[in-house]
Amino acid sequence: MFSSNPFVTLSEVISPAMMQGYIVLMVLLVVGGTILDMLHKKSAKYFFENAKKAQKSAKRSVSSGEKMSIAASVLVNEVLTSGEFSNPRRRLSHLLTMYGTIIFIVTTAIMVFSPESTSTLLPQLWHIGALMLAVGGYWFWLFIRVDVSAEGLPWFRFERADLFILSLLATSTFALIWSFTGGGLSVFFALFILSSTVLFGGVYWSKFAHMFFKPAAAHQKKITVADGSRENLPPDYDLTDPEVQRKFPDIPTYMGKNPPNMGLCIKAERPNHY
Ligand code: HEM
After folding, report:
1. Neighbours of 83 (CB within 10 A)
2. Is any atom of ligand 1 closer than 6 Å to the C-beta of 192?
3. In sequence order, what are the residues at sequence separation of 6 or more whose Cβ sits closer than 8 angstroms to the Cβ of residue 234?
4. What's the rounded Cα separation, in Å, for the pair 92 and 143?
5. What is the DSSP code (8-state) at residue 267?
6. What is the widest separation between alpha-carbon atoms in the chain?
7. At 8, is the pLDDT very low, low, confident or very high (cuts 50, 70, 90)?
């Protein structure tokens, strides 16, 4: 069942050219939705203006070698391993959702654009990708979502911000049911296409485009730390450091010669929710 390619039976009723046209249309919808999103929110304009402003308060210039190593660290930490999530459950669920989506989309495109392929690996990966997406997504939707886990709201309550995760879940669920019920033209196929059209056509309204913006934001954040501009936030001072005490001579007046460690503060509790 896992190794049967559902697009082969589908090609008896819908031509491969039509399927390929649908995929091209979805790509165009994602590109268009992302551009409209940027124009509407002025996020790109804000991003570049903010980066320029930060550059003005830079304490040192960042060499191109350093920039490359920052880009590599963003790729490894934030993009490939979802390092921005402190809560390990959220991180794991994001990894499942992200890699599931990528495997599912890439194998769909390969199978649709090479209808003569007899590979059994591709359909296997397609099913595994859809399953990973469904497991990570349902886990997030039912148990991890802040509204549910921290605010005690019921899992079935949703608003526009949930469009992305819900259309992802619907796409993977109906794709799997469609394949397991024999493929072809069926009500599950119609639901699969409807949900994937909402997923790719809803970029303007959903948080789909975060996958393009987040890496850029993470990179910029690391640049502001490297160039010392730090978004106008103070550095992490060690108050016992004589250099720091010289800079702020009034510290001993308020906190004594050896200022006490103020504790873990925000890190005192394990990040349970966010
Ligand atoms: C196929 C690619 C991706 C998919 C399907 C995906 C899916 C999701 C989903 C469903 C959420 C909501 C879950 C949650 O908040 O725990 C989310 C949030 C998040 N994603 Fe992704 N993601 C993808 C790529 C990326 C990439 C490349 C990055 C970053 C560098 C990223 C960073 C984040 C962050 C930081 C959040 C939390 C945002 C917030 O709380 O507003 N994601 N992602």
Report:
1. 14
2. no
3. none
4. 13
5. G
6. 83
7. very high
pTM, entire model = 0.89
* Residue pair 142/148 in contact by the 8 Å Cβ criterion: yes
Closest ligand 1 atom to residue 144 Cα is 16
* Closest listed residue to residue 239, CA positions, set 227, 224, 228, 253: 253
**Among all chains, which residue has been given the structure tokens 């349970």?**
272
Backbone φ, ψ for residue 66 (5° rounding): -65, -40
Contact 140, 97 (CB under 8 A): yes
Is residue 112 within 8 A of residue 23, CB to CB? The reply is yes
End-to-end CA distance of the chain, in Å? 38
Q: Is the CB of 94 under 6 A from ligand 1?
A: yes
Give me ligand 1 centre to Cα 171, in Å: 17
Amino acid at 125: L
Which among 20, 23, 29, 27 has a CA at the least distance from the CA of 202?
A: 29
Site of tokens 């006490």:
260
Q: Is 211 close to ligand 1, i.e. is its CB under 6 Å away?
A: yes
What is the band of 271 on the pLDDT scale with cuts at 50, 70, 90?
low
Question: Is the pLDDT score of 274 beyond 70?
Answer: no
pLDDT in tens, 68-90: 999 999 999 999 999 999 889 99
DSSP state string for 127-142: HHHHHHHHHHHHHIII
